[in-house]
Write a structure and sequence with these properties.
Largest sheet: 9 strands, mixed
Structural class: alpha/beta
Distance between the termini: 49 Å
CATH superfamily of the largest domain: Alanine racemase
CATH class of the largest domain: Alpha Beta
Shape: globular
Radius of gyration: 23 Å
Number of domains: 2
Helix content: 25-40%
CATH topology of the largest domain: TIM Barrel
Bound molecules: pyridoxal-5'-phosphate
Number of strands: 21
Number of helices: 12
Strand content: 15-25%
Length: 431
Amino acid sequence: MALFPIKTEVSKDGHLVIGGCDTVKLVKEYGTPLYVFDENTLRNMAREFKDEFTQRYEDTNIVYASKAFLSRWTASILKEEGIGLDVVSAGEYSIAESVDFPKDMIYLHGNNKSVEELKTALRNRFARIVVDGFDELKLLAKLAEEMACMPDILLRITPGVDAHTHQHITTGVSGSKFGFPLFDAPKAVSMAMSLESLNLVGLHCHIGSLINETQPYMEAIDVMLDFAAQMGEKYGFELEELDIGGGFPVRYTVNSPNVRIADYAEAIVSRLISRCNSLDISLPLLTIEPGRAIVARAGVALYQVGMTKDISGLKRYVSIDGGMADNIRPALYQAEYEAVLANKADENDIEVVTIAGKYCESGDILIKQIKLPIVTYGDIVAVPVCGAYCLPMASNYNASLKPAVITVKEGTARIIRQRDTLQDLIRKDLL
Ligand SMILES: Cc1ncc(COP(=O)(O)O)c(C=O)c1O
């Protein structure tokens, strides 16, 4: 149960129990596919980040990357936990705004922010606008002048560090679509400093996601601080804030490394302090932007088994009523998952099966090989660590209905997103 939300148990009748709620009963009430989020796990992760970093470095600012999973519920919980929010679109901001998320704790990101999105950030005095390129720098300066304001900005720099992760989630290497490449960064700093309507407070980098070792962070910190020191000498730039992005890992399978946020906090903070000291620059505000690591473990996907198929001597397919429309990660990144049968959680694993999604793509395979108890029609498959980058990337492929989402806490379940209805599918599809 190590991958499931904290305090996940098996009841006397062999049912998986999350947040004090019997998942078999949840499925009866809400149907499948069903995404279940455990509130205590979400809060715990937010607190772990806060505690591990601030006890080592008080001047740390934790900003949740809302692309990992944003809903009005997530935003409300993180607001209560005193965590900031990184948004990349007017849509993400509108969700935050609907729960009165403090605007001065919002960071705006994105490589192609619209004029309206920039104006919204200026009008609402977001904490930071993270500028991604020269066009944006000029446009933002003009808008800020017109709106008579002076936003605090960070420049996103591509530090040329390889995070040794999947190529689709590597962002820190040269040639990335994000940020200023290092060779252009001096020009960006001098331009930003000369634009009177902008207040350049620091630098940002994000080197990738699911970074299973601390070394790439060390390299990125070195590159960013060395660069800041050079800019200090050349232009008198003072680094007030260093934002090192997100990318903190989570365990998706029992074989993936058992990482501790404490190790990352220790490595990052000690490198930051020692490098600043050796470069003789002041210690900046440290900002981190974890997304996945805060929300992934809190979420569990529940599916119902339909048809099974034996391809003699080769494999046994077990088809579920969800798949790539609610979780594209296996098809997109070859992501691996574990699963248990929620209604047979006390039975021994006996047969190796392939869990197939129901969508019309051969690549719609949720789990290639997994050992489970004997699987029969109607069994419930529970897949842990589905809290991040599943629902935000969900689609209506094959005109499927996006799943319902519920939260659980100490025996109480609450629906926070209703399942799409057939009516939803045709509501906006005009003849
Ligand atoms: C700028 C930025 N910050 C933070 C994140 C969050 O990354 P993760 O969910 O891996 O922590 C991302 C993810 O793409 C990002 O682009």
